Amino acid sequence: MANLTINGKQIIVPDGVTILDAARRNDIYIPTLCDDPRLEPHGGCRLCLIQVKGMPRPVTACTTPVTEGMEIETTNEQIERQRRTIVELLLSDHPNDCMICDKAGDCTLQELAYFYDIRSNRFVGERRQYTKKDQNPFIERDMEKCILCGKCVRVCDEIQGLGAIDVAGRGFTAKVSPAFEKDLNCEFCGQCVSICPTGALMGKQSVGKGRQKDVKEVETVCTYCGCGCNVTLHVSRNEVVRVTSRPDTINEGWLCVKGRFGYSFINIPARLTTPLIKKDGKFVPASWDEALDLIAEKLGAIKEKHGPDAIGGLSSARCTNEENYLFQKFIRAGIGTNNVDHCARY
Amino acid sequence: MEEKLEGILTRYRENEGNLISILQDIESEFGYLREDAINWVSERLDVPPAKFYGIATFYAQFHLKPRGKNVITACCGTACHVKGSERLINSLVKELAIPEGEETSEDLQFTVEKVNCVGACSIAPVIIVNKIVHGKMTPDKLMKEMKTLKEGKREYTDYI
Amino acid sequence: MNKDVSIKVCMGTGGIAAGGVEVMSTFEKALASVGIKAAVQKNCSMHKVGCRGFCARDVLVDVIIDGTKSTYQYIKPDMVERIVQEHVVGGAPIGDWLVTDDYHTFHDKQVKVVLSDCGEVDPEDIDSYLGRGGYEAVKKVLTTMTPQETIDVIKASGLRGRGGAGFPTAVKWDMAIKATGPKKYLICNADEGDPGAFMDRSVVEGNPHAVIEGMIIGAYAIGAPHGYVYIRAEYPLAVERLHLAIKQAKERGYLGKNILGKGLDFMIKVKLGAGAFVCGEETALIASIEGKRGQPKAKPPFPVQKGLWGYPTIINNVETLANVPYIIRKGASWYAAMGTEKSKGTKVFALTGKILNSGLIEVPMGIPLKEVIYDIGGGIENGKKLKAVQTGGPSGGCIPANMVDTTLDYESLSKVGSIMGSGGMVVLDETDCMVNVAKYFLQFTQSESCGKCIPCRVGTKRLLEILTRITEGKGREGDIELLESLAADVKTSSLCGLGQSAPNPVLSTIRYYRDEYEAHIYEKRCPAGVCKDLLSYSILEEFCKGCTACTRVCPAGAIIGEKKKPHKIIQDICIKCGACFETCKFKAIKKG
After folding, report:
1. Which string of DSSP letters, residue by residue, matches B61-125?
2. Which residues, other chains included, contact C460 with Cβ-Cβ below 8 Å and sequence gap of 6+?
3. So what's the pLDDT on residue B85?
4. What is the mean pLDDT of chain A?
5. pLDDT band at residue C50 using 50, 70 and 90 as cut-offs
6. What are chain B's domains?
7. What is the Rg, in whole angstroms, of the alpha carbon atoms belonging to chain C?
8. Residues C493, A59: C-beta atoms closer than 8 Å
9. In 10 A of CB A223, how many CB atoms?
10. Which chain B residues contact residue A164 at CB under 8 A?
């Protein structure tokens, strides 16, 4: 453990953590745009510059590990002036169309502009202008809003292990891009969307469907497979408009393409909402009691007539382990056969 | 193509090369970074093509488009700048009909590129024509040189 | 014929550009054709030598007969015949073609350590270097000194890093010797990217073995078995000579396993840069050797803790390493006797710009700037007045003419707001606009910004835009203050040295030439007459003879008038190229 002081406050943190981490653990605010505790530190946005006593110049809190006896100042006049300048510089190369941006209200850049009260900008000049639209089915990429924090690149490489995108070019015209500026063609897990601090990356299906303030969040578990990822459904006007996941969950906030983007079936009118029983050659809606009674009756009859081995059970990967356990128990003990299998085996 | 790329990969493995040296080899083999070549290498090495693209667009030495038969390089170092390299470049672009925003003429005969200091400041301004360094260049001398190149009086091979 | 004849042709990049190859082959032919082939062959040797610094006079040729050296300047192939006939055969040097007195003043005030063998040894022949005491230093450290003793000698010599920051070399090595790990690396940084600087190129081209020898000593001192030279691909000749030198050193047992039988293993690999200025920065250089995008990383951890492939790594500049063998050979006190209290030894500068004798110079630290400009440099070109000297390239600043008494050492330069940098020295005269100079350097750094951090990526862009509008006559009140404030923030908040120093040219020119900025902004006037948008050319009728010379050179057809009557420039068509101004013999064109 290391003893240090942040803004005069004595704190104790484990050895080796970064200053930013130490501050977070003690609820001390240091602004940042490019850091995520789940990713390798980047040190690019320069917002977390802080002053450490004895160091000749400010250092980034996200990359500097704590040492015993460190005296840290997270804010002073010069640091705040620099941070303000950085936000101003970012805004001078940004569309600033918050009024129509889906990310408004949930955008770190907007939040910082608010925090630093940037009404007018001292800097005006050339803005990056990109007209090409990415035609992929899931992810809207508005590179004019990109602040090059590099989180999407890192998450794709470090977490997803894919590296579908990287920073291309350099300097003012550097741009996050798939190879040869092609349309994105990846697993579409949307990890990049989840981590983007601005409106540069959005789910295509969510655009125009309601901003964060109109959304009711419903915590649930993804039903696509047995992993049991925690998901948060964003519901607006009784419609699921977006799926996210919180970083403090079992899946650390990461999802796959199905969990993140495979939700449009929920609102489709043709979706089955009750069991159907075929009567006179036609499917007719029925209650669960009716349906289960019918299944029990038919299975009982088959077992009676042909013996239990005439019945087999096949279970789904979309069930949980517990459900799968119950299912085989039902087939083995209830029906009395070992004819049971699981779709994951095929 | 694949044979050449196999050769590049062999060299890469033998000399503990890196992605930059692979790109340098592709560039010198094909004259520019061909997309199909990069995709081929990327698949063989299991390195995402986006990574190659990121590197290729970072370094000034790499080109993603075919280059001209004759490459004219203008030094833009401090000494060359104060001694009028800008004027030389403008006259080159005009004389060789290089489209705006491009480096290479449409018939792929000429490429005009700017480089940072080539370190021959005492003979500024410097123009490199097909790897031969020409010092103390003037617009007149340069135009004469271009004329001989254009008329084919001097072939590219004369320089090598 | 039994004279001992030796001919040395300058074959640095400058020499070759001026026709060195042709001069050399013509010498070979001419010597052969005078019918003294057999006799001369034995005694007459032709050497390629590296840069001797005075590139403006290329091709330089030494003709040495029985030990008497005559140096010719501006030699062209068609002059060779006469030299051979009259001088080599006839024994009478051709006075008109010999170097003049200023060639000697150029050399007199210089003290050559790093460059002492440049221009003397044949860089493509290890024996030539060995003949001048080469690799003696390696023998000395391997046979008589421990690594710690080696570092102690360097410490006592006071050698500081010549790459720019001036960090004491021995302190760096000391940290490396203490760093533990299965592997260590020593990297020679030859990614000399500053525009207007060519010291490292000349050293590698002129005497590559000195760099290699320095690296071997460094490797021994810190215990690094692996070395890299990271060199710009824009220096093909230097790369070629370096490869050759490494090969030769390996053949002679100075590189490889068990060097000189003393148990030291060290091998050098050459990595070519691919054209990114930022790769001169240590962490970016490491990323580039690893084959990645050359983006810098935050420090700590420093390369000496966690560098190439995660192992402790020391990065030294070419000139620093080239100093090492000479210090070991001649002793720390010899070296420390040169220079000032805190800046020891000599420094190589690339003297360029509006100076009469441009070229590569090596001077003792602490020499007054004015001696460099007026004695070595021979003063300003075309009789113009000195305005400022820019040192340190795009990371440096300007020293105004009234401060030419400033001495050249790390401390004095930083006191006047400039830096030593890697040694670029660009002389500016009264026709240079300081706002334009600042704009030029910022254009450079802005286009070389890697884009990783915001202050550098967007900040330098905005600085450049403000400067551009000032030079275009669109400057606004408050722009100078805005420049100062943004420059200060970019300096303190950027990630690496590139961004941290990029605003220096702006701050330094504002500091000394605020009035020029003000003239651009408030009077819409460029005092030096450089900024095109603030210029207009007009014809003074009373001087114009109507000779039509200007009409003929005007590329835009903007000048009209009858023959022998005063002409006129149509302002809407004029592109302000200045061609008429340069052509008029009657000083009838007014610029302003």
Report:
1. T--SS---SEEEEEE-SHHHHHTTHHHHHHHHHHHTTPPTT-SB-TTSSEEEEEES--S-GGG-S
2. C442, C445, C446, C449, C490, C499, C502, C503
3. 83
4. 94
5. low
6. 2-58 (no CATH), 70-153 (3.40.30.10)
7. 27
8. no
9. 14
10. 48, 50
Contact at 8 Å (CB) between A208 and A157?
Answer: no
* Digit-coded pLDDT (tens) for A311-346: 999 998 888 888 999 999 999 999 999 999 998 776
User: Is the model's pLDDT at B156 over the cut of 50?
Assistant: no
Please report the pLDDT score of residue C416 as a whole number.
92
Mean pLDDT of A144-160: 97
Residues of C in contact with B119 (CB under 8 A): 13, 192, 197-198, 201-202, 234-235, 350
CB-based contact, A248 to chain C, within 8 Å = no
Are C462 and A92 in contact (CB < 8 Å)? yes
Between chains, do C455 and A93 touch, taking CB under 8 Å as contact? no
Q: Do C275 and B115 touch (CB under 8 A)?
A: yes
Q: Is C187 on the interface with A (CB under 8 A)?
A: no
> How long is chain C?
592
Per the model's pLDDT, the better-predicted residue between C474 and C591 turns out to be C474
Domains assigned to chain C: 5-99 (3.40.30.10), 126-336 (3.40.50.11540), 346-429 (3.10.20.600), 434-522 (1.20.1440.230), 536-591 (3.30.70.20)
The confidence band for C95, taking pLDDT boundaries of 50, 70 and 90, is: confident
Window C:504-523, CB contacts with B under 8 Å: none
C103-121, pLDDT tens digit by residue? 777 888 889 999 988 888 8
Mark out chain A residues that contact chain B at CB-CB < 8 A: 162-170, 177-180
Are C300 and A174 inside 8 Å of each other by CB?
Answer: no
ipTM: 0.89
Taking only residues 103 to 122 of chain B, the set having a beta carbon closer than 8 angstroms to any beta carbon of chain C reads 115-122
